[in-house]
Amino acid sequence: MYRPPAFAETRREVLHHAIAQIRLAALVTPHDGGIDVSHVPMLLRDTGKAVTLETHVARGNPHWRRLAQDRPSVAIFQGPQAYISPSFYPTKAETGKVVPTWTYIAVHAHGQLRAVQDRSWLAQHLHDLTQASEANMPQPWSVDDAPREYLNSLERGIVGLQFSVDRLEGAWKINQHKSEADRRGTADGLAASGAQGAALAAVLAQTFE
After folding, report:
1. Which residues are bridge partners to 105 per DSSP?
2. DSSP H or E stretch at residue 165
3. In the beta sheet, which residues pair with residue 58?
4. Cα dist. 187→145, 148, 173, 194, 197 in Å?
5. Residue 200, pLDDT score
6. How far is CA 30 from CA 35, 69, 70, 106, 150, in A?
7. Per-residue pLDDT for 108 more than 70?
8. Alpha carbon distance, N-terminus to C-terminus of the chain
9. What does the pLDDT look like over 49-81, one tens digit per residue?
10. CA angle, corner 104, sides to 125 and 25, nearest 5?
11. Residue 120 has pLDDT above 80, yes or no
12. CA max distance for the chain
């Protein structure tokens, strides 16, 4: 991923937190006939020695059948993004030397993907993914709330995927290279532009003195 130094995010804990918050990834794997792309929720596990991502796909999805050990995969986590109008910048009134841009947060995970059909692994994965996703619900739903025979029938229709992460890349393009006045103008404009803009504004505000 192309990242000018000002926009590169390399802190492990920041990248892991972003993955946990975004969760949905575009999982990309090349194969002899082209490229498979699946949009899937992913669960991060960090043992301190290794980082893995877990997900699952429908058994009818050919993505899992075309995996090969010599073909790396990429999981793309697209965080909040928003348009930046030149009108956000005080510099517009001062010099006019401003143009539009786009702000965004993104994380790319590079590594090796393998299919998992072990039923106990899949059951634990679904339990943990659900628990993480339901954590902020007023009345969290648990996998155990559904009848076991019903879950068994659904589990037969999916295949687990385990992604061994070799490296992570993060891009935080939020105008942090601008003057403080223009950063503050950006944050104000973003905060008024909707939920995604407000999320970016909160991150950008951390750069203020």
Report:
1. 172
2. strand 158-173
3. 158
4. 43, 49, 13, 12, 8
5. 94
6. 4, 11, 10, 21, 34
7. yes
8. 30
9. 999 999 999 999 999 999 977 789 999 999 999
10. 20
11. yes
12. 68
Q: Which amino acid is at 67?
A: L
CA 42 → CA 142, 161, 173, distances in Å? 18, 9, 23
Q: Is residue 208 within 8 Å of 183, Cβ to Cβ?
A: yes
Position 126: which residue type? L
**Residue listed under structure tokens 């939020």:** 174
pTM above 0.85, yes or no: yes
Amino acid making up residue 123: A
User: Coil, strand or helix: which one is 148?
Assistant: helix
Mean pLDDT taken over the chain: 94
CA-closest candidate to residue 99, choices 83, 82, 86: 86
- Report the percent of the chain where pLDDT is more than 90: 89
Identify the pLDDT of residue 51.
Answer: 97
Pick from 192, 202, 170: nearest CA to 85 = 192
Q: Residue 107 pairs with which residues in a beta bridge?
A: 77, 170
Q: What is the pLDDT of residue 68?
A: 78
Give the start-to-end residue ranges of the domains of the chain: 5-82+101-176
Q: What are phi and psi of 138, to 5 degrees?
A: -60, -35
The CATH code for residues 5-82+101-176 is 2.30.110.10
